TrEMBL record:
Signal peptide: none annotated. The chain crosses the membrane at residues 20-43, 213-234, 240-264, 412-433. The keyword Transmembrane applies. Keywords: Membrane, Transmembrane, Transmembrane helix. It comes from the Bacteria. This is DUF445 family protein.
Length: 439
């Protein structure tokens, strides 16, 4: 060992190996705990849990923007909500901008659902309800006239309307298809649905990425141990009481940052000599696309939700008016040769009132089969195939940005959490083993 410098001999000779060796062990355990609790912070709880604090809302409004982003602060609460579910609406917005908008226009989604099949389903569901609907409208708007109509004539009216129904419905589904870009806003629909169902965003990560997330936790053990070695060297060299807590801050911060980098970066494979590096999530983009598409098709862009949005969403009045306008000529055709006689018998104003009432009533009935859960499930596979295909075609950087959207701006909370735990680990080691080194 003559080649070893004397100062290094002396440095090794003064090492307290128990003190020195336990530092990497401590940083390894702290690194594992940091990433494990970081996952809990990401996903739990799904809904905000905490207490309302008087004056918190007003105080939060003047604090730095980063502090305002802590879940609950701007709502006047002291507590926590998982970072991902807390940012569900943000992820929904970015998912639309980065991915769903590229996956297809509203018209493409609508055509994927095969409007002819929708029309056939509407006819099947709606046809038995026609007598009851016509009865109710006529009893409400012109009870005396309808009461005096012979049963055979009523039956003839029912049959006539039922005969016209397929044409009416085809016109309705065609009109929806023509104007779908003005009637349906996927961005609003997705944001609203994610905001109301934040657990869905958790599912997007967990259903395909649980293995990678668990690996990130285990890497925290490795990162912590490796980073703990230079910490032990510095602690032994300088022997200052404050070194371990201060270096623990850096170890905790770096451990979390490395964990996040491991999951998302780089989005495309890169080679550093013989080592090939690729983010854990983007390397499984194809599998992720299938899981993502299944969730979108089953829970977000469904025929049922499209029907809800068309009739009850922010543009529902426009949908109803458009469909009623499309139905009026069909209702006139249903009246057939008797239309002129009916107009004379009850007056043009009454006839137009009845026609408007039938049209308005029929609008809701023709859209209601959209809300049939079983039919919606049958159609979901078509949406799933479209979303999966287009998601697989996304550039890796766009895919990563879509997946990371919910946490990108809030990662500092995870890093701060790691830094605090790292400092705590340093103080704990100091308390148990005291000050080490030559100081």
């Amino acid at each position: 060992m003559d080649w070893v410098p004397a100062w290094l001999h002396e440095w090794f000779a003064t090492i307290d190996w128990l003190h020195f060796g336990t530092i990497p062990i401590f940083t390894a355990v702290i690194g594992w705990l940091i990433n494990w609790t970081g996952l809990i912070m990401l996903f739990s709880p799904v809904r905000f849990r905490g207490v309302r604090v008087p004056g918190m809302r007003e105080l939060a409004s003047v604090l730095p923007r980063k502090i305002q982003e802590v879940p609950g602060f701007l709502q006047g609460g002291l507590g926590w909500q998982g970072i991902i579910p807390a940012r569900a609406a943000k992820m929904g917005s970015i998912a639309v901008d980065k991915a769903i908008a590229k996956l297809g226009t509203p018209a493409e989604f609508y055509q994927q659902l095969e409007p002819d099949q929708i029309a056939q389903h509407i006819v099947t569901v709606f046809e038995p309800e026609i007598p009851e609907m016509v009865d109710r409208v006529m009893r409400t708007d012109h009870p005396k006239l309808w009461r005096d109509v012979p049963p055979r004539v009523k039956e003839a009216v029912y049959v006539r309307v039922q005969q016209q129904l397929p044409g009416i419905v085809r016109r309705v589904t065609t009109e929806i298809g023509i104007h779908i870009d003005q009637l349906l806003d996927p961005k609003i629909m997705v944001i609203d649905h994610f905001e109301k169902n934040p657990a869905l965003v958790n599912r997007i990560f967990r259903d395909f990425g649980q293995r990678e997330l668990n690996l990130m936790v285990n890497f925290g053990l490795l990162f912590g141990f490796v980073l703990g070695i230079p910490v032990a060297v510095l602690d032994h060299t300088f022997g200052q009481w404050w070194l371990l807590p201060v270096l623990g801050v850096f170890v905790g911060w770096i451990t979390n940052a490395l964990g996040m980098w491991l999951i998302f970066e780089p989005p495309e494979p890169k080679k550093f000599g013989p080592i090939r590096v690729h983010g854990l999530f983007p390397r499984r983009q194809s599998e992720a696309a299938e899981v993502y598409a299944q969730i979108i098709a089953d829970d977000v862009i469904t025929l049922q939700h499209i029907g809800d949005f068309l009739l009850d969403g922010p543009r529902g009045d426009r949908t109803r008016q458009m469909l009623a306008t499309a139905m009026r000529p069909a209702i006139d055709r249903a009246a057939g040769p008797a239309r002129a006689a009916v107009r004379v018998a009850i007056g043009s104003q009454h006839y137009d009132t009845i026609r408007e009432s039938v049209a308005r009533e029929a609008v809701g009935r023709t859209i209601s089969p959209f809300k049939d859960p079983e039919f919606s499930r049958q159609q979901a596979d078509k949406i799933r195939q479209l979303v999966a295909r287009r998601t697989k075609e996304l550039p890796p950087r766009d895919f990563v940005e879509m997946m990371r959207a919910a946490i990108k701006e809030d990662e500092w909370m995870l890093y701060a959490h790691g830094a605090i735990m790292g400092a705590g680990g340093g103080f704990l080691h100091l308390w148990i083993f005291g000050v080490g080194g030559g100081g």
